[in-house]
Design goal:
Elements lengths: L27 H30 L2 H5 L6 H4 L22 H29 L2 H24 L1 H16 L1 H12 L5 H29 L6 H21 L12 H10 L15 H5 L2 H30 L5 H31 L5 H23 L7 H13 L8 H8 L4 H26 L6 H25 L6 H24 L1
Helix pairs in contact: 1-8, 1-9, 1-12, 4-6, 4-7, 4-17, 5-6, 5-7, 5-9, 7-17, 8-9, 8-13, 12-13, 12-16, 12-17, 12-18, 13-14, 13-15, 14-15, 14-16, 14-18, 16-17
Length: about 500
């Protein structure tokens, strides 16, 4: 690792002399975190709304007709005997489980495409407009979803692919902005707070979608997409008016805060990001980068398995109605949000007090955030609808404890290469996005026959095994140090300056 890291002290030990005098609570960087937080509420609202809506879009009498064997697991009373052409929620779209899994997974076909280009564009030209334009596209795609759904499931897949491309570009754009805005000793809490908006988006969208399914305008489920699409559009306008790409361009930032941020990032090339040459070969041969990639892939497998299928699992295995389904589906993400923010503050406190180095902190938080949920998922596989409280409790812990990882690998891009954080995030998250369209299809195939507890047990075992592998790989290969390929420009400039001075002295 000695050749891979730039010869600097751990950034935990590098503190601006006047950092204690720089305001935080009413600062521009905290304001950026807040509007970014609201942005990711909208990103996930338009992303997960279909996971609940599909329960009341589809004619459940077709899918339930294969579930007669499941009733023996929970008693005869648990089985809903529906013989009408429509489900109790008014669903009329005739999609089998494999088709539903394909539709839910199609989002990730697009999500895979846009991330690396978004990281590169944002690194070269700034993340503000990348984020703004993609969110405007997302709002339009969301509003068009009911129309496309009624036209054909192929048309809906196309819309979901477009939505995946657009929302996938938001993360690299935001990571690029934080590479220019986040002081090293504050980056964990600022970045984790921003991305915690995703969990709040889920918390709000699941119960809201459940209510709109049953009581919404435009015949119920279409109102889910109209409400979330319009909210996304309104946020986009606010973002355009209020946000700047970096502190030097911000109109309302104080001088002390601007100087503090710029001086704290002086070793990382971010000030010259518009003319950066991206060291692609060094990036793709860096084991710390691959540690992040593997951590991201394994995290997303478990996350997407749960995110896209929790409403279905609760509806068909635990037998909750759609209104309760939305509320119960949101519970894990309420705790997730709390865990993310507590973890962010705790990680920065550990680093500030030098209890652990940045690298060890990232490894510990990532490992705990994978292994603990893996244990919960294995236990969840042994619970059925006769134990709803236990099932919900395990589900809450399985989802929420993964939030600890946000203070681990998810921030690690900015640790090792702040100038290229958007590109690194684009690489890792685009590769991880593959799991997003594979996982729902595999879950659909495994649970196609009867939606039994035994089938879901297989799903949870697979997710747990993948989590554990990711934890081990990250602990072995991750780093918390600024990498040489992200700092060598400043090093070269210092060497050149020294050589020039020596040459000048010799001439004199």
């Amino acid at each position: 690792m000695a050749k891979e890291s730039f010869d600097l002290k751990d950034d935990v030990k590098v503190k601006s002399a006047n950092s204690d005098n720089v305001p935080f609570w009413f600062s521009s960087r905290l304001g950026l975190a807040f509007i970014g937080f609201l942005g990711f509420i909208n990103v996930y609202a338009v992303r997960v709304n279909l996971s609940v809506a599909i329960v009341c879009m589809v004619n459940q009498s077709r899918t339930d007709s294969n579930n007669t064997e499941q009733s023996s697991e929970c008693g005869a009373g648990a089985y809903r005997n529906e013989t009408s052409d429509q489900s109790p929620l008014g669903g009329y779209l005739d999609w089998d489980k494999t088709t539903q899994g394909t539709i839910l997974g199609s989002f990730f076909w697009g999500y895979l495409i846009g991330q690396v280009p978004a990281g590169w564009i944002a690194t070269k030209f700034g993340g503000k407009w990348v984020y703004a334009v993609t969110m405007l596209v997302s709002s339009v795609a969301t509003v068009l979803t009911p129309l496309m759904s009624n036209f054909s499931y192929i048309a809906l897949i196309v819309v979901r692919v477009v939505l995946g491309v657009a929302t996938g570009m938001t993360f690299p754009a935001m990571h690029t902005i934080w590479g220019r805005w986040a002081p090293p000793l504050e980056r964990t809490k600022l970045i984790t707070f921003t991305y915690a908006g995703a969990q709040v988006g889920i918390v709000l969208t699941f119960p809201l979608s459940g209510m709109l399914c049953k009581y919404g305008f435009a015949e119920g489920w279409p109102s889910i997409f109209y409400v979330t699409g319009i909210a996304c559009f309104i946020w986009s306008i606010a973002w355009i008016l209020l946000v700047s790409d970096d502190p030097s361009k911000h109109k309302r930032i104080s001088k002390i805060e601007r100087d503090y941020i710029i001086s704290s990032l002086k070793n990382s090339k971010v000030s010259n990001s518009g003319t950066l040459k991206v060291p692609w070969l060094r990036i793709f041969t860096s084991m710390p980068v691959w540690a992040i990639v593997v951590a991201n892939i394994t995290s997303d497998w478990g996350a997407y398995t749960l995110l896209t299928n929790i409403p279905t699992y609760i509806n068909e295995v635990l037998k909750f109605d759609i209104t309760s389904n939305g509320l119960v589906s949101a519970l894990p993400y309420i705790m997730f949000w709390l865990v993310i923010n507590i973890g962010g503050w705790l990680a920065d406190l550990i680093r500030k007090k030098e209890l652990l180095s940045t690298g060890i902190t990232r490894k510990v938080f990532t490992a705990v955030g994978k292994i603990a949920p893996a244990v919960m998922l294995i236990a969840l596989g042994y619970v059925d609808c006769s134990q709803p409280a236990v099932a919900v409790g395990l589900l809450v812990f399985a989802v929420s404890l993964t939030g600890i990882q946000y203070s681990g690998f998810l921030v690690n891009h900015v640790d090792i290469a702040p100038a290229f954080a958007g590109i690194l995030f684009g690489i890792s998250n685009s590769l991880a996005a593959v799991t997003g369209f594979i996982s729902p299809v595999i879950v659909g195939v495994i649970t196609e026959e009867r939606q039994t507890r035994l089938e879901w047990q297989i799903v949870f075992y697979i997710a747990a095994a993948i989590y554990i592998f990711g934890a081990i790989f990250f602990v072995i290969f991750a780093s918390g140090e600024l990498q040489s390929w992200s700092a060598e420009k400043e090093k070269d400039e210092e060497v050149a300056l020294k050589d020039n001075k020596e040459s000048l002295n010799q001439d004199i």
